[in-house]
Structure of tRNA(Ile)-lysidine synthase:
Amino acid sequence: MPRLHPAVAAVRLAVRRELADLPAGATVVVACSGGPDSLALLAATVHESRAGGWRVVGVTVDHGLQEGSAEQAARVVEQMAALGADETAGARVQVVLDGEGPEGAARRARYAVLDRVGAHFDAAAVLLGHTRDDQAETVLLGLARGSGARSLAGMRRRFDRYRRPLLEVARDDTVTACQVEGLDVWDDPHNHDPGYARVRVRRAVLPALEEHLGPGVAAALARTAEQLRADADLLDDLAEVEHARLVRPDGALPVAELADRPDALRRRVLRLAALDAGAPAAELLHEHVRALDALVTDWHGQRWIDLPGPLRGTRADGLLRIAAPPVA
Ligand SMILES: Nc1ncnc2c1ncn2[C@@H]1O[C@H](COP(=O)(O)OP(=O)(O)OP(=O)(O)O)[C@@H](O)[C@H]1O
């Protein structure tokens, strides 16, 4: 028997490990763009499903943003069926560009479809093909934005129904696995467009880091993310407990007790308080939390601080409150 190629073995092993808890009969949805990562993921999932006894559903989403996208989606549906998926689906979405960039809008539309497909099939897992290199790019982009530990912690391995089995697999391996298995992969033109920061990181920044610092930078960044994620998860859990302990029934927080808490915990409690008061998570920035924190640690009689919502943070009578501004 010919020996299994190491790249194919690496992808299959990652899938086997990530899905080890699924019972026979479970439905696994694989989100497949037709690119090397998700095609390798689908091929490995179909292979592993024979031993696992799972039903594999391949789904591709046509964002309708590029010429010929419908034909491309139809081709992926055929490929998924040929690879042995038990069921396949192609969904066309309407990407609404309201303020955010096309990439973000496409992602939102895609996840809305995947959510629905996952629910429709009562899927035990919906798989995404993000690799170790995607993770390294995410960490570098977070680092460049100067965001906190949460975004440096990169992508989560699991959330809701979603799982990312290839988060520790190198992109080189998914590309090689597709070559070895004779899969005809789609080369998304967006992956070459230097207008996207992620593309610049992929094509220029990471190769330069590897050239000057030695190989293994992507793997090191992904490992860093893993460690930071564990730390960030712990701090977030502690902050939830602390917030629940401190918050009064009317939502106010006692300043003296907040001031006693370590910075990392206090700022997280303040962030939770702002979210509880209705601040939109996507708009609540580090600078807002710092301004709130100044009401506790750098109090010099500030009248209020503005938060997205719009909301106001105020301090009075030893209590910190976050609420909508009074109607003029
Ligand atoms: N059009 C799509 N239809 C279904 N799933 C998708 C689609 N685009 C992306 N995904 C899912 O999201 C994952 C990450 O997508 P992203 O665009 O970041 O990477 P990619 O370079 O397209 O990956 P791939 O090599 O699998 O195409 C993909 O691996 C796949 O699981």
